């Protein structure tokens, strides 16, 4: 596992454009090797901008969208049609605009599909396990102002999940309270983890996540490392870095 790399961008638009272009290149390269890459999507404000940008660029790219598998790093345990669903946001901004194979879109089950967040985590883990070893070509993650990533929040019992791919999260400090998240163990099994952060509100959390010392309990994003870990930041989000 390599040290995280930081890529700074002038503003959110440049950031989103660069991430979109790097992601499309990465998917094309994987498909050129004959693979069907697994891509982990994230929720959050900057992710929505990224999804829209990917949809805009899709026409000119040579990505075969029917040969990409989509997953999520976390999901809110709410009904399938709730506006709070990360999957709903990604569908509206990206997946509904490109020719995905519906069988390749792996949502975490919703609260009107299974009884509990534990059931949803179990079903999602099973689906991921069926697709084999290294989970994602790229897992994209946001970071909250409190340092959370996916749905792993500071000092939360879900941080301690072991021997698990996905974990149910209750009493989330950020609404909605019930969620499902990938565990640290699962996130470590990615070829690339890309954190994407924009705005001054993320600056302190980003600095804590990248500092030489500090605890994962305080800043869960510190605990995530893929084979390659890249922090894609705009200048505002990078403003508290040394
Ligand atoms: O609740 C969540 O928050 C984080 C960060 O979102 P942001 O709007 O503060 O950027 C997001 O990465 C995660 O997927 C989502 O469920």
From TrEMBL:
One of its GO terms (molecular function) is 6-phosphogluconolactonase activity. SUPFAM superfamilies: NagB/RpiA/CoA transferase-like. Its EC number is 3.1.1.31. It comes from the Bacteria. It catalyses: 6-phospho-D-glucono-1,5-lactone + H2O = 6-phospho-D-gluconate + H(+). Belongs to the glucosamine/galactosamine-6-phosphate isomerase family. 6-phosphogluconolactonase subfamily. This is 6-phosphogluconolactonase. It comes from Nocardioides ganghwensis.
């Amino acid at each position: 596992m390599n040290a995280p790399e930081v890529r700074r961008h002038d503003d959110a638009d440049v950031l989103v454009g660069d991430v979109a272009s790097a992601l499309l290149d990465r998917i094309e390269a994987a498909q050129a090797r004959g693979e069907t890459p697994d891509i982990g999507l994230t929720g959050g404000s900057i992710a929505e901008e990224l999804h829209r940008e990917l949809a805009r660029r899709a026409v000119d790219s040579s990505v075969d969208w029917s040969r990409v598998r989509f997953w999520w790093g976390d999901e809110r345990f709410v009904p399938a049609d709730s506006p709070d669903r990360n999957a709903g946001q990604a569908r509206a901004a990206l997946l509904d605009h490109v020719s995905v194979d519906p069988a390749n879109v792996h949502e975490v089950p919703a609260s009107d599909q299974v009884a509990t967040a534990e059931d949803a985590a179990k079903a999602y883990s099973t689906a991921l396990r069926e697709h084999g070893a290294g989970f994602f070509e790229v897992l994209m993650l946001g970071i909250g102002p409190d340092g959370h990533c996916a749905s792993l929040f500071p000092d939360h019992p879900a941080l301690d999940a072991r021997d698990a791919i996905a974990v149910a999260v209750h009493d989330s400090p950020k609404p909605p309270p019930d969620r499902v998240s990938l565990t640290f163990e699962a996130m470590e099994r990615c070829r690339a983890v890309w954190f994407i952060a924009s705005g001054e509100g993320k600056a302190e959390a980003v600095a804590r996540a990248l500092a030489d010392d500090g605890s994962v309990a305080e800043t869960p994003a510190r605990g995530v490392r893929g084979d390659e870990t890249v922090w894609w930041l705009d200048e505002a989000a990078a403003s508290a870095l040394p």
